[in-house]
Amino acid sequence: MKEFDLNKWEKRSADNQKKYKQLLQKADKNKVLKALPDLHEEAFAKIDCLKCGNCCRNYSPRFKTPDIKRISRHLKMKEGDFIETYLRVDEEGDYVVKKTPCPFLGDDNYCSIYDKRPGDCVRFPYTDEDVFIKRQQLTLKNSTFCPIVHYVLEGLEEIIN
Predict the structure, then answer these.
(1) Mean pLDDT of all residues belonging to the chain
(2) Do 96 and 137 sit in the same domain of this protein?
């Protein structure tokens, strides 16, 4: 795959949203699913999340009940206090952080609860699972702020076309 420039990906991703949408809609799902693991590994080898942190600075994962239990126990807080301190309910009825950036994100882009982080954070950016093709709107949104998603979409375009 061609060289990836971490400084120029955002404009390219914004310019290519329509093309990415068409790519995801017309792509053979089995071919995409077969290509994702290698593209995912390649993207993570080339792009350092700690140099970006856009996901943690601008968006919130869902905090599901097991996440809340695990994290509050780790922080030695009661679950209710954890929720009251850090979370709110969004328009979809999910617990999310009250404000961004995530309160657990450090200035160095390290997560202070990394080993206990929510499942959504563990799985993000979903570039190695079927969510990538099944939830196309989510993939397109993620491609506007995550260079790894953009990289994988660019790689898929090369493979599929």
Answers:
(1) 94
(2) no
